[in-house]
Design the sequence.
C-alpha cells in the first residue's frame, strides 16, 4: 500500500486542472529539463570523442613513455631497453635519435625535428607504419640515407617521393674556414600523414644509423620509446621505472609531454558542463512557479486535508512529490534522448548537413572532418544526478508555503 502523501501527489500530477496555464508551465519545465539534460549528454559525448580522437592521433606518433639521458644522449641503451621491457606493463621498446635540422629543396628551407628510428622496432611502439601516405616506413635502410617527411612538410617543400633534399644539421665541424654545419643529401622515400599538424608539418624520419652519423652520435641514442598495455597507466609506470635507474636517467610520459593540450580540453569540457547546466537550472526553477500556482489553486483541498488530520509535513511532502515527479520525468526523457542522439551522432549530423546543404567540419580546413562521439556511462550518471538536484531543491519553498496554509482562512470564502 503506497503512502498517503505519494498517492495524493501522484493524483494531483495526473489530474486535469481547472487552470490549464499551470499544466502548460509544468510541461515547459519538463521539456526544458529534458532539453538541458540531452544537450549536456550530447555535448560532453562529442567533446569526449574529440579528446579520444586527438589522443589516438597524438599517440599514433608519440610514445606512451620514453627514457632519455643527460644532454639528450643515452650510451648503454640496450641494457636500459631490456630492463624497461621487464616491466609487466611494457609491451615493446624502440631506440631513437632526436635532433633539430633544416631541410632544403630547391630554394625552400624548412626547419624540422629529425627522428632517427629503426623501422622494424618503431612499428612496435607507434602507428607510423600505418600512417604512410606514400611509400613504406621500412624503405628506410641503414646507409642509404632515405627520409620520410610529414605531408605538410612535403607540401611546403614541394617535394614528392624520389626527390633529393638536403638535411643541414646544426652541429658543425671545424675547418680552416671556420665552423661549418654538417650537410647531407637524403632521398625522399615516403610521406606520412598523422592527422596532427604538429607532426605533419615538423617531423622527418630517417634511419637511426644515418641520424647517428649525421649528428655524430656514434653508438649512442637520444633515448628509448616505450609502448604500454594501458596508456592511462603511463604516469604510474614512469614512476616505477624511475626507481630502477639512476638520477641521470629521465623518464617522461605522454601526459606530461602534452599536458597543456589535454588540460585545455578538460577545462573547456568543464566550462561547457557549467554553461549547459544553467539551462537545466532555469527549467528546474520553473517548477517553483508551477508549484506556487498549484498551491494557490489547491488552497481548498489543502484545508480539507488539514481538517481531516493531515500534518503540515504531510502537505509539504505531497507537493514535493508533485514537483519531483516533473523533474524525474524530464530527466529520464533527457537521458533517453541524449543517449540515443549521442550514439547516433554519425547518422544525425550528416542528415542535417544534407538537409540544410552545409558542412560543419570541412575536410580542407579541419583534420577531423566528422563529429566523433564517445558516450561514457559515468558522464550520464553524473549529469542525471546533478540535473535532478536543482529540481528537488526547487520544490522545497512552494511545498513549505503549502504546509503553512491556514484551513480556516482557505475555507472562508468557499
Sequence:
Amino acid at each position: 500500500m503506497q503512502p498517503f502523501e505519494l498517492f495524493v501527489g501522484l493524483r494531483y500530477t495526473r489530474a486535469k486542472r481547472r487552470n490549464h496555464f499551470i499544466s502548460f508551465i509544468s510541461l515547459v519545465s519538463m521539456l526544458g529539463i529534458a532539453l538541458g539534460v540531452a544537450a549536456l549528454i550530447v555535448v560532453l559525448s562529442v567533446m569526449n570523442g574529440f579528446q579520444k580522437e586527438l589522443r589516438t592521433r597524438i599517440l599514433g606518433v608519440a610514445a606512451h613513455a620514453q627514457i632519455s639521458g643527460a644532454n639528450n644522449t643515452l650510451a648503454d641503451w640496450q641494457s636500459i631497453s631490456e630492463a624497461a621491457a621487464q616491466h609487466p606493463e611494457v609491451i615493446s621498446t624502440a631506440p631513437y635519435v632526436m635532433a633539430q635540422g633544416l631541410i632544403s629543396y630547391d630554394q625552400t628551407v624548412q626547419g624540422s625535428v629529425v627522428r632517427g628510428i629503426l623501422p622494424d622496432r618503431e612499428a612496435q611502439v607507434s602507428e607510423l607504419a600505418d600512417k604512410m601516405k606514400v611509400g613504406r616506413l621500412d624503405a628506410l635502410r641503414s646507409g642509404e640515407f632515405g627520409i620520410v617527411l610529414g605531408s605538410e612538410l612535403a607540401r611546403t617543400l614541394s617535394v614528392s617521393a624520389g626527390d633529393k633534399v638536403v638535411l643541414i644539421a646544426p652541429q658543425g665541424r671545424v675547418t680552416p674556414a671556420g665552423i661549418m654545419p654538417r650537410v647531407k643529401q637524403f632521398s625522399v622515400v615516403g610521406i606520412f600523414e598523422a592527422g596532427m599538424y604538429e607532426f605533419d608539418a615538423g617531423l622527418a624520419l630517417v634511419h637511426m644509423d644515418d641520424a647517428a652519423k649525421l649528428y655524430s652520435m656514434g653508438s649512442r641514442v637520444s633515448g628509448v620509446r616505450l609502448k604500454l598495455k594501458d596508456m592511462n597507466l603511463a604516469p604510474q609506470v614512469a614512476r616505477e621505472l624511475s626507481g630502477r635507474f639512476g638520477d641521470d636517467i629521465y623518464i617522461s610520459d605522454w601526459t606530461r609531454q602534452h599536458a597543456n593540450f589535454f588540460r585545455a580540453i578538460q577545462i573547456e569540457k568543464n566550462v561547457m558542463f557549467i554553461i549547459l547546466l544553467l539551462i537545466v537550472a532555469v527549467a528546474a526553477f520553473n517548477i517553483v512557479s508551477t508549484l506556487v500556482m498549484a498551491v494557490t489553486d489547491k488552497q481548498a483541498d489543502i484545508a480539507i486535508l488539514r481538517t481531516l488530520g493531515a500534518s503540515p509535513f504531510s502537505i509539504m511532502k505531497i507537493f514535493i512529490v508533485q514537483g519531483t515527479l516533473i523533474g524525474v520525468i524530464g530527466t529520464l526523457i533527457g537521458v533517453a534522448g541524449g543517449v540515443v542522439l549521442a550514439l547516433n551522432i554519425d547518422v544525425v549530423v550528416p542528415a542535417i548537413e544534407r538537409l540544410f546543404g552545409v558542412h560543419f567540419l570541412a575536410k580542407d580546413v579541419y583534420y577531423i572532418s566528422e563529429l566523433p562521439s564517445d558516450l561514457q556511462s559515468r558522464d550520464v550518471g553524473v549529469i542525471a544526478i546533478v540535473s535532478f538536484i536543482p529540481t528537488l531543491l526547487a520544490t522545497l519553498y512552494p511545498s513549505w508555503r503549502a504546509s503553512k496554509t491556514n484551513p480556516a482562512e482557505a475555507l472562508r470564502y468557499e
Q: What stands out?
A: The beta strands are 65-69, 90-105, 108-117, 132-135, 146-150, 164-175, 178-192, 203-207, 223-228, 249-253. The chain has a mean pLDDT of 80. The two ends are 33 Å apart (CA to CA).
